[in-house]
Amino acid sequence: MDSSWDDLTLTFSHTSMFPFFDIAHYLVSVMAMKHQPGAAAIARKNPVSSWLTAMLHCFGGGILSCILLAEPPLKFLTNHTNVLLASSIWYIIFFCPCDLVSQAYSFLPVQLLAAGMKEVTRTWKIVGGVTHANSYYKNGWIVMIAIGWARGAGGTIVTKFEQLVKGDWKPGGDEWLKMSHLFLYLGDYEYCSNEFGSTDVFRSASKLTMLGSVIFTFQHTEHLAISKHSLMFFYTIFLVTAKITMMMTETSSVTLGPFEDTLSRMLFGWQKQFSWCETKLSSNGTGSSASKPVPDASQNVKKKHNKKTE
Amino acid sequence: MDSSWDDLTLTFSHTSMFPFFDIAHYLVSVMAMKHQPGAAAIARKNPVSSWLTAMLHCFGGGILSCILLAEPPLKFLTNHTNVLLASSIWYIIFFCPCDLVSQAYSFLPVQLLAAGMKEVTRTWKIVGGVTHANSYYKNGWIVMIAIGWARGAGGTIVTKFEQLVKGDWKPGGDEWLKMSHLFLYLGDYEYCSNEFGSTDVFRSASKLTMLGSVIFTFQHTEHLAISKHSLMFFYTIFLVTAKITMMMTETSSVTLGPFEDTLSRMLFGWQKQFSWCETKLSSNGTGSSASKPVPDASQNVKKKHNKKTE
Amino acid sequence: MDSSWDDLTLTFSHTSMFPFFDIAHYLVSVMAMKHQPGAAAIARKNPVSSWLTAMLHCFGGGILSCILLAEPPLKFLTNHTNVLLASSIWYIIFFCPCDLVSQAYSFLPVQLLAAGMKEVTRTWKIVGGVTHANSYYKNGWIVMIAIGWARGAGGTIVTKFEQLVKGDWKPGGDEWLKMSHLFLYLGDYEYCSNEFGSTDVFRSASKLTMLGSVIFTFQHTEHLAISKHSLMFFYTIFLVTAKITMMMTETSSVTLGPFEDTLSRMLFGWQKQFSWCETKLSSNGTGSSASKPVPDASQNVKKKHNKKTE
């Protein structure tokens, strides 16, 4: 690619997140938190708790990656500027008279702009996470992928756990199945709360982050012959486009669908041809997952075992 | 202040917590744990589990601050003397024949003395936490406040989580609201269990710790023109007086009440004058917090959004 | 002991766990995970979540000891060989056509061999944990015991918490009592799921690990006049024998039973003679643990207190 294009991507990759993109990220996160039921009431009753939740929403990815790397989870508090910025956004959103900010945010174009800018911060976070993990473990590429994933999309799991602890969100019924998928839900939490889409949106957004983490890890370990800045450019374009598309048309299968189906069919689908002997297992598995409590299931496992050993 | 007074406060600030004040702290904590329903039965059935719970009650603040600073949570185990001291107190309280200790402790003067001495240890813990955090992050004053708070009053959150995991204490109904306030409950757990007061006592005790953490942080960053030892003296006097008052008269509004009201009215109350447009929001918030599950709430959020965009 | 015997034990203590014993450990752990109800269905629906659970089962002890020592919990991911080995075993077990592996594993001799080899890895883990903790805290013998215990048998607590978060396993009813014993359940999780034994098996297996951790700690601090390699030899023989015996005869009281009874009678039983004054306490404790919710219990505590103070 010619040098002018190279300059463009290089300049783009040097864009500072600080004032505007961070503001967009905090805005989207805190609005997502406010759209949870009762959030406004809690903010009135107990501002400190609400502020802490807002911090979890805003800095969750950093906190999670700090925990995974055994760094102080409070590290984000040392960045006073960003903490004060997020706090003021939380204050404006929750305590602005007549709820002006929410009403302004409820217009689709504003949401599209904010969401797009938030996606840009996601790319920066993934790259930062991968580089940071590499400074810990040379060639620890699994760790690099995990940290990039955690920092890029980890706000969700932290807030999910926070809700779990609050008892606000109780996994139960088929919820626990969703919860068991939590590790795949490191996705766009805000689209959980204001219901822009179903859990597919989570999963696809989370998978996009995962894909980015993998790509940037390979680029960092020089398995991809492309410069980091142009990769950042392309990936950001891809992310923003996918997010905007997901928000306009509330479907999520547009992204990665075929690729995933092929992969999962290659990896986990080829046993389907042995359908004549899969039936027993699958029925057993699904049945016990649906209804049976642990003792029953383990008993019939035991029965099966005894049958075998007789 | 003249030098004799200075000497007094200096001597006071050099008091060693080790034998007697630590004993009072362990006594109050383990008695609080014993007053939980079923604690005595568990101690008979499973001493090891009971002992671990007692350690959590006694060293919870240190454990929490270790976690927040990414230090080994087991660090407190290296202080063999204190661990053995706490263990022997646990043993005496739970396995003393005829339950003599509990009966002795159930006299109010004993409780007042023990609680007063425990408050003294709280001051020492706050100062230690602030200094320790400052050794990590120079001028990281938010972290210093947080660590001082956690170490000074963090026994509760650890034991709360331990109960949550046990399933002994399930947040549900309006409990989850209380739980959402957990971050404010870093308070006097013992008054939760033996019901000396309501959640107000928590909150006020926790707020006293928070206030102390803020004060000592400002003193440490030289924003307060007062020597640390005299500040420790005054704050300890204040803490002990407040605690004794709270225990004698089972009210808690004596402390910080007016100050808080003013502050919260200044910060979060001035929108009340816009009552004509606050109604919709607050009713919506409270209603959904009370009863509606997540999907409903997010649906009516979505509806609202669609109305807006139409 | 003569030198040939010494050579034997020395050679044994230098056995590498890597290919075969690790495979046995992963096999037993993943089979235990597969025997949970619904595990097979989850693996089909969401392979990534299932893979993560499998990693938790396989490397739980290491993760727990990393958390307790404030090391990165992701550290195990840097050992690429073992992660790939465990992943391939997970893949074979869950996606082998016709479920061949499970059927092969359901024969008792295979289970006995795998379980025996797993016990060998347990010894190595305990020794590694004790040595590792000693490199942190010289003479911190309590920490050494705890880390040896955690690494030797910590897979359970991690998976228990993972189930708790999933909501798959809800402590409730007398479950919460069991959960309160969780710290004693750092035992053989696989015998939880395929029901080879009752909770006694847990406790005894966990106590065997605890005993080993204590023994190796004392050996490491030179309180035991026996060389480490012969101690490893004897302890491994003991572990394997105990495990095989437990699996053949589904009883668990064979091990440590008398020793424990004596100890607990010495420590916690001698108050029984004061039965005339124990009755009130124990009845009160058991009663409230069985049924009464927190407020009632604390109220009658308060009542008792008021009676006292009147």
Could you tell me the strand content of chain A as a percent range? under 5%
Which structural category do the helix and sheet elements of chain A fall into?
mainly alpha
Work out the helix count of chain A: 16
The sequence of SSEs of chain A as H and E is: HHHHHHHHHHHHHHHH
Largest sheet of chain A: none
Average pLDDT level of chain A: 75
How far the N terminus sits from the C terminus of chain A, by CA atoms, comes to 71 Å
Please estimate the helix content of chain A.
Answer: over 70%
Oligomer: homotrimer
- Give unreliable regions of chain A as ranges: 168-202, 280-310
Biased composition (Polar residues) (chains A, B, C): 282-291
Protein name (chains A, B, C): Trimeric intracellular cation channel type B isoform X1
Subunit structure (chains A, B, C): Homotrimer; conformation seems to be controled by binding to diacylglycerol (DAG).
Biased composition (Basic residues) (chains A, B, C): 301-310
